[in-house]
Automatic annotation (TrEMBL):
This is Glycosyl transferase CAP10 domain-containing protein. The keyword Membrane applies. Keywords: Membrane, Transmembrane, Transmembrane helix. SMART domains: CAP10.
Amino acid sequence: MHSKVLQGIPTWVRSRSARRNLPLLLAVALVTFFASYSFLEPAPSKRPISQIGTHSPQQEHSKLPWHPIDDLIKEGEQQFRSLLAEQTHDVASAAAAYRKRRNRHPPPGFDKWFEYAQKNDAIIVEEFFDQIYHDISPFWALSPRWISQQAKNFEHVISVRRGKATYKTDKAKRVPWVPLWHDMVAGIAKDLPDVDMPVNVLDESRVLVPWERMNTFIQAEKVSRRLQPADTVTSEWSGIPGMPVERFDAKWTLNGPYWDIFRHTCPTRTEASNMSAIRDFSDLPVLPPKYPEHSYHGYVRNWTIAKSPCHNPHLQNIHGTFIEPTSIATTQELVPLFGGSKLQHNSEILIPPPAYWSKDAKYDPDGGTWSDWLDAFGWRIERPWAQKLNRILWRGVASGGRNRKENWTHFQRHRFVQMLNGSAVRGAGFAAGKRLQTTNLPFPENNPYNLTALNGESDERKGPLSEFGDWVAHYAAVAFTHLVCFPAESATDRWKITCPYSSPFYKVMNQLSRNTLLSSRYLPDIDGNSYSGRFLALLRSSSLPIKATIYSEWHDSRLIPWAHFVPIDNTFVDIYGVMEYFLGFEEGTSRDLAAERIASQGQEWANRVLRREDMRIYLWRVLIEFARVCDGERDRLGWVDDILETYRQ
């Protein structure tokens, strides 16, 4: 019997006589277990699409005063219903939606792509693919031959030739992102044209084209965009040019500060583009004195703007990407490069990341033990919402970049863990009308979020949550599993989980199993070195994800904040308000049913549109669009079978 199994069984069961009856005992235990637990990865909902997102409005907190989040949830649900109304059900309507939104004909192979989507019971809404055109449009301003040759010559590339996929990379022992992407492509290669997909294997975004140059490319693409007469359109690919060209020198920059490279991607005359990089991080981080920009009474309303460093230049002071990333290898030239995430103004072409494609838990970027002993039998189970703990739970490593003695107080994960540490909050002397000043958190004065624990009312209560720090400690269980010192003082220090400069402020806790993590209702997701590889797993769970990020991903057009997850600002100043809204301050003040509704709706939607099949559908669409922009006949290439006969008449 596996040792992990025995560790979870009482001593009397492990006795010699009891072991003989272990199969029977396990059977009885499992019957009881499954009676109160549900599968983590249920089959996708078979409810009619018209019924998804139509939960009846709950009146569970009708006696509670109005709150801004009430309006945001209503807006999110309305936006979700509007998105669902745009679903297309046949190739002709899908092609019509494409032409209306893109002002081009769909690329060759569009019919086979849609057939694959239908065969795999996919929901197709043209808006789902907006990111592809944001990413690929600038390449219409460049030579097809040049694009295809640069793609072919990159050091990490997946290639399709005659319906078969191959790949090349530089290190066999590298984390297997390239083989995973290859596997994603291989399943659809037989229906793809010849194409090369160069991929970014680093955490950081690498292509940062200055705004003026990028704007020139975008304007050139707009001029070229038109619907060609159907009888002049061809669906025959001309293939990749065979004549080699000299490899282009992308002039990779290998040192920072990263902010000074990034800020030139922001529109000119903006505050961000003219703000030089901060080099001294010895002082405490500086946050805006008011509500986050473009928020709604302090809460995220515009998710796109909330994630944008160009709209939030203070992010260079509070996010590890701009303080000191783990690596820098960037170019200001528009070169074809595909990746799993990027900053909004970076110019990579987004595709589903390999961490989402992999079924191997060891590629969890936080090193979490996402499986317990039941996973050994292929079982993944989860408590229903009513049996989950009413708390916020997070475990992870202190990643986000190279946190040093001089800069660690500015990193996002350090700040988040400090904010949800009841002892740290109590030690800061947080009181109504006074400024909270922990080691790394300046908080707005005068209680702008009208928190009950700070507005004076709580002083009269005698309950265990009468002090703000007690309230935080009661509802939040947040900790690091590794403090990731840099630089390590010796080779052996690399394996230490503590750190001389940050250990006095953080208690390192053990990693948690997947089942333990999913036993809580509220699960935050915070950027590490780049995007967080756990977000998809959280969406597929029946817990409620609380998300903060500056990174864009392939699925962003499919997910609606406040309908599928709860967004928070990257300063985290709104986290206490979110906590009080959903968890409450005392009995009778929570919006538990609202939280459960978002969690349930997000889980159902993720199981419909974020499956492995959906990743391949997105990747297929990306690759036929990229193959077209690389084709010498790209202006005439398209799929018009649905309108050709009508056009000829």
